[in-house]
Amino acid sequence: MAESGQGDPLGDFPIHDEFGTLPPVFPAGTPALAAGASTRTAPLAARLTAAAADTAAVLLLCAIALLAARLATGTSPRPAGIPWIMGFVLYLSLFATVPALVLFGRTVGMALSDLSARGGAGEAGLPAHAALRRWAGGIATAATGGLLLLWTARNPQSPTPADRFSGHPLTLD
């Protein structure tokens, strides 16, 4: 097990590798890692993993809300209520994404994929308008079924629609 430094958030978490396949853990203040992490653009696979995790979290919360409504009323939503449900999904998606990006520079899915969108050097998160634009770019990409990612798939360094709209690309941490 590698020794962790003072700046390591998982310093007391008992992670060990029996087979010697895990990379060594470096303290957060290592200059080579800090410089390389802020300039590496996030690959498309990591972005898709983050998007899937964020989508799963929002859909889970929506399912809980629908089940609670069913339990409280005793009836299932009628087909006329589907637009309201879709509006609630968008509303919940907005409030699961934008405040997390503003406060922490990452969503739950981005944290699972070790991605972040930072406003600048030393800033914890994005400005509110950039976070809202990043969310709108993600919704536009989802609305087109991912067709907007064709330009990103051809060239891994090209920005996604969310990167273009917000002006802040995702980077690996």
Task: Using brief descriptors, characterize the structure shown.
two-stranded antiparallel sheet; 7 helices; 173 residues; mainly alpha
Please give a quick description of this structure.
The chain has 173 residues and is an all-alpha fold. It has helices at 31-39, 44-73, 82-104, 108-112, 128-143, 150-154, 161-166, and strands at 115-116, 171-172. Helix 2 packs across helix 3 (82-104).
How does this model look, in words?
With 173 residues, the protein is mostly helical. It has one domain (43-71, 79-172). It contains seven helices and two strands; from the N terminus they run H-H-H-H-E-H-H-H-E. It has helices spanning 31-39, 44-73, 82-104, 108-112, 128-143, 150-154, 161-166; strands at residues 115-116, 171-172. Strands 1-2 form a two-stranded antiparallel ribbon. Helix 2 packs across helix 3. The longest helix has 30 residues, at 44-73. The chain is elongated. The two termini are 21 Å apart. The model is unreliable at 24-38 (pLDDT under 50).
Q: Span between N and C termini?
A: 21 Å
Shape: elongated
Helix content: 40-55%
Radius of gyration: 19 Å
Report low-confidence residues grouped into runs of 5 or more: 24-38
The residue-averaged pLDDT reads 79
The biggest beta sheet reads: 2 strands, antiparallel
Our count of domains comes out at 1
Written as H for each helix and E for each strand, in order along the chain, the element string is: HHHHEHHHE
Compute the number of helices: 7
Percent in strands: under 5%
Structural class comes to: mainly alpha
